[in-house]
Amino acid sequence: MATALLLSFAVLLLIGVLISERAHRTVLSTAVLFLVGGFLLGPGAFGFITVTSGDPIVSGLAELALFSVLFTDGMRVGFRDLRTAWRLPGRALLLGLPLTLALTAVFAHYLVGLPWLESFLLGAILAPTDPVFAAAIVGREEVPARLRHLLNVESGVNDGLALPIVLILLAAAGGSNAHGEELLLEIVLGIAVGVIVPVIVLGLERLPFLQAIRSMQPLLAVSIGLLVLAICQATHANLFLGAFAAGITVATLGKGLRHDFEQFGELVTELLKLAAIMVFGALITPAFLFGDIPFAGWIFALLALLIARPLALLVSFIGAKLSLGEQVTAMWFGPKGFASVVYGLIILESGIALADQIYHLVALVIVLSILSHSSTDVVIARRFARSQEGTAAGTKNP
């Protein structure tokens, strides 16, 4: 199985790299390539990849990928960024996130019939967003800077904000051996490890006889991440919150290190994400989508994408100085990111009574999100570009 997975990933990666320039200009998407490729190569189609949700490689890859995602997300949003430009992202995070969670829970309860506890658990899993599936929005200069900053900071922080809620609700649903004080200890210890390790390492690096040369600077951040991962596993601290706290701490205390690590870290994280998306695609079968999910589940998935986040952000942006186009773009580009994939796998392995039903709904929303958001990002970016060109032309010819 390992050989088949490696060969499949290598081929898909090669194709993804070769079409990346065209994908940057069209509706083609690397994420969709790996999702569809995993589906076609998996048991639901050609059967070249044979994986199940209980395979160690699935949980191990998902865990490592999410750790990397949260570490790099934290590196994007140091405390200075949050202090200097917090107003718009704060609206999306402190009001938009809980409203999205609540609306999703309401849809799950009344449409699918989930109990309230499991409905809020599903809402917490699907609340985080990920701009990787809408890269043309956050990576294009023609898109207004405040909109790119809003989506970038929001997606960088909301994974970490949603995780404690997921853990607490999962424990309340009987899916964790850690209850009460033990769960709180795991969360607090994870955050503590994520702060203390970078502080010590960066303090040592500032000593004259221990400074790293410029070419090795990216590996300093990697070593911090690996130390946090190892210590969290050894102490049973929450390694995901440890990763997120470590990323924020490094971004805050080591601004130069953050810049040096940016490209290298993004590439490593992208590789892990794409591998996990391919495996996620291989877990999906036609029977999974059309036999195990009722019609009400499809209605729920559509409402979760088309109503929950847009309505939540519409309320959050009341009084905000955003144009209508910027508001609509922010409301639409709330792709369900990689964190939701891993949270769904955690639920599937948790042993709670409704784990299968929750996972099926999570998987459906993620699939629809990857297909829809990854196919519309370039279109929206071009619209902003045409708008800027029209404004520039009007300025020249009053």
Tell me what you see in this structure.
The protein has helices at residues 2-18, 20-25, 30-41, 56-76, 79-84, 87-112, 116-126, 135-138, 145-172, 181-205, 217-235, 239-253, 255-282, 286-290, 295-316, 324-332, 338-348, 355-373, 377-396. Helix 4 (56-76) packs parallel to helix 12, helix 6 packs across helix 9 and helix 7 packs parallel to helix 18. The chain has 19 helices and no strands. The chain folds into 2 domains: 1-51, no CATH class; 52-279 and 288-388, Up-down Bundle (Na+/H+ antiporter like fold). Helices cover 76% and strands 0% of the residues. It is an all-alpha fold and 398 residues long. It starts with a helix and ends with a helix. The model has no long low-confidence stretch (mean pLDDT 81). It is a multi-pass membrane protein.
Low-confidence stretches: none
Nearest-integer average pLDDT: 81
Kindly state the number of beta strands: 0
What's the CATH first level of the largest domain? Mainly Alpha
- How many domains make up the 3D coordinates? 2
Bin the strand percentage. under 5%
Taking the sheet with the most strands, its summary is: none
CATH level-3 fold name of the largest domain: Na+/H+ antiporter like fold
Q: How many distinct helices?
A: 19
Percent helix: over 70%
Order of helices and strands: HHHHHHHHHHHHHHHHHHH
What structural class do helix, strand and pairing data support?
Answer: mainly alpha
Label the CATH architecture of the largest domain: Up-down Bundle
Radius of gyration: 21 Å
